[in-house]
Amino acid sequence: MYHFLSALFRPLPLGFLAALVALVWAWRKRAGHRRGLVGLAVVWALFALSCTELVAHVAVWTLERHYPPDAPLPERAGAIVILSAGTRVFSEQGDCYDLDVGSAFRCVHAARLYHRLGQPPIIASGGKVRANEPGPLLAEAMAGFLVELGVDRSDIILEDASRTTYENAVETAAILADRKLTDVVLVTDATHMARGVRCFRAAGVDVVPSACNHRNGLLRWSADVVIPSDDAAAAMESAFHEWIGLAWYWLHGRLG
Region 75-94: what's the mean pLDDT? Predict the structure, then answer.
């Protein structure tokens, strides 16, 4: 009961509960306008369901199913490529910053591969999404963290011109070709891996995926899985972002 109540009494589920109470009240008071209320109730129900752990788990599964957390690590690597996620900047000058969770996970996973696979070169890929935003280039920020994780700075190659996943692939493909690097291992979040792999394939690079930062854990059946939650809403947002990205890239011929 404690876990159920602690899941219920949070801003998001309380907001849905308040909206439901308002709908019920309006239904009883406005008998002549119930047709519009039915539409509103359907929208409410769909939105509430999309923010539950059960639905979010299925949504994320569609993206992560080919890249499970227990997948074996690659046996060799001529190069490791990390796709950037983002940073959190804390000052207007941009000199106080940290990697966001996605970038940090990817760097840790890449450093682990680096030490296990004989210290191949690592390409940190990512510039700035917006040129005028404060903070460092994403590749530079990741390189600094990789050095802290024990990666030799001389083994890190910066690709700092790209702003999107597609540009990550195109710019990195040029570096790989110039340096004649093969057996490329790609590191990114499990939800993002499908788009990353297909963008690199379109750029002429056949990569070996090594995913990290999986969102889906073991789904434990309880009342909590059908209560809207912040975590489930965030997972759905990530899934929608990738679905839209895949659709957009497919329409523009950017997927291999």
Answer: 88
pTM, 2 dp: 0.84
Determine the residue type at 25: W
Which residues, in sequence order, are bridge partners of residue 89? 97
**CB crowding 84-121: b at 16 or more within 10 Å, else e:** bbbbebeeeeeeebebeebbbbbbebbbbbbeebeebb
Other Cβ atoms within 10 Å of 167 Cβ, number: 18
Q: Which two tokens stand for residue 68?
A: 């499970």
For 165, residues 6+ apart whose C-beta sits below 8 A from its C-beta are 83, 192, 195, 196, 199, 245, 249
Strands ordered across the beta sheet of 79-83:
156-159, 122-125, 79-83, 184-189, 208-212
CA within 13 Å, CB half, 124: 31
Q: Report how far residue 242's alpha carbon sits from residue 129's, in angstroms, rounded to the nearest whole number.
A: 17
Residue 239 has pLDDT above 70, yes or no: yes
Contacts of 208 by beta carbon, 8 Å cutoff, 6+ apart: 74, 77, 183, 184, 185, 186
Euclidean distance between the first and final Cα of the chain, in Å? 49
Give 49's contacts (C-beta < 8 A, 6+ positions apart).
Answer: 55
Closest CA to 56 of 203, 231, 198, 186: 231
pLDDT band at 2 (very low <50, low <70, confident <90, very high): very low
